[in-house]
Amino acid sequence: MAEKETRDPAIPMVVLGTAHPAKFPDAMEAACGIRPPLPEWLSDLHLRPERVTLLPADQMQVERHILSTSRATREGAAA
Q1: DSSP letter at 17?
Q2: Distances from the Cα of 75 to the Cα of 63, 70, 71, angstroms
Q3: Rg (CA), the chain
Q4: Does 75 have pLDDT greater than 80?
Q5: What are the backbone dihedrals phi and psi of residue 43, each rounded to the nearest 5 degrees, phi first?
Q6: What angle do CA 24, 5, 23 make, to 5 degrees?
Q7: Of all residues in the chain, what percent carry a pLDDT higher than 70?
Q8: Which end of the chain, N or C, is more open, meaning fewer C-beta atoms within 10 Å of its C-beta?
Q9: Each residue's pLDDT tens digit, 20-56
Q10: Nearest to 19 by CA among 9, 11, 27, 31
């Protein structure tokens, strides 16, 4: 198990993330009244590893990281 990193609460944090609506069915149902079903391709979601990348508080480095890991960039959809 990874060592827990301590964080200074005085330093702002930006967290980027995306998820299928079915990952949070309770929140989706509370927000819009519809409980999204978990698609077959996400059936093992709870078994998948969580991925975290710590970056410095530098906009250019964050942008470079997003572009370097973006599927849209790899597939030629991002400019």
Answers
A1: -
A2: 17, 9, 6
A3: 17
A4: no
A5: -60, -25
A6: 10
A7: 89
A8: N
A9: 788 888 998 999 999 998 889 888 878 999 888 999 9
A10: 27
* Amino acid letter, residue 37: P
72: which 2 tokens?
């849209």
Q: Are 36 and 21 in contact (CB under 8 A)?
A: yes
Tokens 């979601």 locate to 45
pTM over 0.70: no
Assigned token pair, 22 = 């079915």
Whether the Cβ atoms of residue 53 and residue 70 lie closer than 8 Å to each other: no
C-alpha angle with apex 12: 6 to 26, nearest 5 degrees? 85
User: How many residues are present in the chain?
Assistant: 79
Confidence of residue 77 (pLDDT cuts 50, 70, 90): low
Quick one: how far is CA 25 from the chain centroid?
16
Instruction: Give 68 or 73, the one with higher predicted confidence.
Output: 68
